[in-house]
Amino acid sequence: MIERMELFRTVAERRTNEIVVMTMTATLQWPLVSKSDLDFDFLAFGMGHAADFGLGLAIARPERKTIVWKGDGGILMSLGSLVTLARYAPENLVVFLLENRSYEMVGGQELPPRADFVELARASGFEGGGAAGKGKVERIDSLEAFQDALPRILTEAGPHFIVLPVTNREKLPPVNHSDHAERIRTLRKALDVS
Amino acid sequence: MSEKGASANKTVRKLHELGFTHALMIPDSESRLLYEALENDPEIDLITPCREGESVAIAAGLWTGGLKPLLVIQNTGLMEAGDSLRGCGVGPKVPLRMMVGWRGYGGATAGKLPIDSAYTFTEPLLQAWRIPTWRMMSDDDLGTLELMDQTAAETSYPAAVITGYGFKP
C-alpha cells in the first residue's frame, strides 16, 4: 500500500509540463503539493468521466502528457470508458487509478470486493493498445517501486493505466468550490488556446 | 420543399465548412447513414465511445485543448448523458455543439401509437437546460447547423439542432 500524499509528492516533484486532471479526494490533496494552471479540478464535472475528459485533452494536446488521478469508485461509474480509452489510446495519456476500495469521499463505503481493476483494464484492450501498440497496464504496490517507475512512465510512449493501492492518514481539506467556467478558462489559457 | 430527412453527405460537407475536427457518435438507427459518411470522411475524426456520457466529457476535453468537436447523439443517449452534459457543458459554459436525433418524431407526428416517450421529452429536456435548439428536418434546414455553431460560440454555452427524420444518402 502507498500513502497517497507520498504518491502526490513524488509526482509533483517530477512533473514538468503535464496536464493533471484530478477528481474526488485527489482534488482535496493534490493542490497541497501542486499549484499550476495545468492542474484541472474535475470535481462535479460529471460523475465517472474524469478520464474521458483527460482522453479529449490528450488527443488535443499530443505535445505533452495528460495525467489523470482517478478513483476506483469513479471508474465503476463508467466502466465502458475503459474500452473507449483503450480503443483511442493516445500515447500521452497516463491514468493513475487510486485504489482504496471505497467511496472515500462520502464516508468510505466498501466497493465490490472482487472487482480487479488491472484485469478490467486488460480485458478492455488497454494492454498493447493504441496506434503504436504500446498501451500498458501495471499495478504498483509500493512507494519505492513507484518512484523507480515514474521517470519511465512520464517519458515513454503509452498510454498507461497504473493501479496504485493507496491509504490516507491525512485529514482531508475542504472541497474547492471555485467557479467551473473559470477552471476551464484557466486551463485553456495555460495551453495557449484562445 | 425537400423530402424528409437531411442528406448525410451534404451534412458532412456543411460540417467541413464549419471547421469541425471531431465527431463523437454512437450509431443509431436514424443516424446510421451519417455515421457511415463520417467513418469514411478523411477530414473529421470519428470517435465512437460506449455511452453518451463519455462522449460529452471527451468533447469537453477536446474543446478545452483547442479542437472543435461535434456531438451527434440520439435523444435516448442525451437522457443517459444528463449529468455529464450538466457538468461538462452547461455548468462550466463549454460551447458544446450537438446534433440530437429525435427518435419517435416520425411516428408521433404521424399519429402512431404508442408514442415514444423519448420523443415526448426531447425538447422539454433541452429547454430545461436552457440549450437553444433548431429543428433540422430536411436539406432545407442545413443552415441551422451554422446558427447552432454561431450561437454556441457567441454565448459560450451548448447549442443543438434536433434531427427529426434521420438521414438519407
In short:
The complex is a heterodimer of chains A (194) and B (169). Chain A has helices spanning 4-14, 26-29, 50-60, 72-76, 80-88, 117-123, 143-155, 180-190, and strands at residues 2-3, 19-22, 39-41, 66-71, 93-99, 102-103, 109-110, 136-139, 160-167. Chain A is an alpha/beta fold and 194 residues long.
Descriptive key words:
heterodimer, A: 194 residues, alpha/beta, Rossmann fold, 7-stranded parallel beta sheet, 8 helices, 20% strand, globular, B: 169 residues, 6-stranded parallel beta sheet, two-stranded parallel sheet
Give the secondary structure arrangement, pairings included.
The complex is a heterodimer of chains A (194) and B (169).
Chain A: E1 2-3, H1 4-14, E2 19-22, H2 26-29, E3 39-41, H3 50-60, E4 66-71, H4 72-76, H5 80-88, E5 93-99, E6 102-103, E7 109-110, H6 117-123, E8 136-139, H7 143-155, E9 160-167, H8 180-190
Parallel strand pairs in A: 1-9, 2-3, 2-4, 4-5, 5-9, 8-9
Antiparallel strand pairs in A: 6-7
Helix pairs in contact in A: 1-7
Chain B: E1 6-7, H1 8-17, E2 22-25, H2 32-39, E3 45-47, H3 52-64, E4 69-74, H4 75-80, H5 82-90, E5 97-101, H6 105-109, H7 117-128, E6 133-136, H8 143-155, E7 159-163, E8 167-168
Parallel strand pairs in B: 1-8, 2-3, 2-4, 4-5, 5-7, 6-7
Helix pairs in contact in B: 1-2, 3-5
